[in-house]
Predict the structure.
Amino acid sequence: MAGDGSVKLIDEKTGKRTDGRKFNELRPTKIEVGVLNNADGSALIYMGNNKILAAVYGPRELHPKHLALPDRALVQCYYRMSTFSVAERKSPAPSRREREISKVISDALNSVILTKDFPRTTIDIYIQVLQADGGTRCASLTAACTALADAGIPMRGIISGVAAGLVNDTVVLDLHDIEDQKGSGDIPIGYSATLDEISLLQLDGVFTIEQFEEAVKLAIEGAKQIYEIQKEALREKYAQIRAEFAGEPEEEEAEEEDTMEIVSQSLAESEASVDETAIDEAVASEETEEKKTGEKTTIEIEEVSEVEEVSEVEEVSEVEEVSEVETDEHQDLVSDIAEELNEELDEDEKELEKELNSLGTEKPEENDDTTTTNTTESEDDETEHEEINDLEE
Amino acid sequence: MNEIFFENHAIVVPGDKLATGHFKYGSGVVRQDNNYYATVVGLFRDRGDYISVKSLKGKYLPRAGDLVIGLVIDVGLTNWILDIGSPYVGVLTSMNAVTKRFDPIMADARKIFDVGDIVLAKIIAFDRTKDPNLSTKERGLGKLKGGRVIEIEAAHIPRVIGKKGSMINMIKRLTRCQIITGQNGRIWVQGKKIQDELRAIEAIKKIEREAHTQNLTNRINEFLNSKR
């Protein structure tokens, strides 16, 4: 909240502020990229005494699903202040202010992220303020956007956040905590240097039109400096590794067609490792259950032969030769099917035999005659014969 | 009037003005008026009249025809849901999984693929309005048994393969491992000895870290020979 401006915050002789900066000077700012391993992208910003961590997850599946947008990604931002981030303990309950900042940051980022590349997904940005020293929403925006770039999320440009404010009737850049509280107004700005677009602009306090225009101009100059720092931080991550091997000869990586070739090659190799038989077995298991008795198969054959007869009758009435050929084909088909079924039956029998052997003397009840006789003891055989003889008599 | 502001292979960040004039442009580039800007952190590619930025990081986006290594996360009556390491889950229907007719009353989908199985599949359709459709019908596709799966950035898969497969074939030769690369950034490695697998994985991780540097194949060669 802007104060009444009665506190002297600028030295009248030197024109310096309470922390020794000039009116158009940024606080020392440093950004580290990729500081979290579990996040898809992350950034840690030091801006004066601000320490803010931003983590990006996504694009990823959105839960609950009904929030998903059919044509683009949802950008969700969660700004949180740690309880220890300010001098007096901040209540851990989410405050109105935190929700507001979450909203303005996600709106600002929404304007640069190419959300239409990832329909039905969400991009989550978690911002944790570890230490606050005024202007956290701007620093958070800077960190969030850097983390997004680190996560490889396509954006039209990079947003840099910075505030300009009114202190003792002077427009100054990048307010710190005391200036924020005792000064008479501040204007946080999110600005993309390459697009020359303002994506966030808020105003607290009272400005004349001249002061407002001057403040925006000043903030844009500051944002351009921050953009350079962001760029450097993002490049640094890869440039460092590259510098280790500088000056080595150039080398090409796989082109699209190479990739496809190798992929199909690995496909061929994988045949040995891929478990194809499992699939067939699983599907076959349904059939074996049906055909244990062999009844169903005979029915099927009968059905087919009926069809064959019908077609014969129909076709004879038209052209004799054609019908002959076609019936032949039908017969072939029928015999083929019968052969196949017989083969499968044979296999089934073999399997059953195996099962029986493994079971030992125990006899499963649902076995067909051929297999049971193999294992039955001679005494049983004799009794059976006797019974048959009795019946015959 | 055509002007390019970056060298080939330079590291660019989002918002960098790559060129002005008339160019064809590919992934990682947006055009505004006659200016071309990068949209991702990556390596700038300059092919005369065609410019693009090769991303160094980011989620895998499915493309029809891609070979992916998926993890079964759900089994339905006649379909399987696979995590393919992208924002969208892969859907494998029984129609695209088995050649014979699949009757959900008689057969159990879990007997074919169960939750936790690693499956090599091909993406047959993806249009962003629906989740990508997978298939395991082609020869060589299906459940992967044994071995281990590692995950790297999908963007670095072409580097792991190398020009005309030079890199991957070298790793296979020197570690005597079977390696299958999925275009979603998952790589399946199986060797006769655990040490072989670990060496192959270490080499692949090294490629991922140094993907944007030069002379990598030779360095990996030295690396693998020194580890033997």
About this structure: The first strand of chain B starts at residue 3 and ends at 4. Residues 67-143 of chain B form a domain with the OB fold (Dihydrolipoamide Acetyltransferase, E2P) fold (CATH 2.40.50.140).
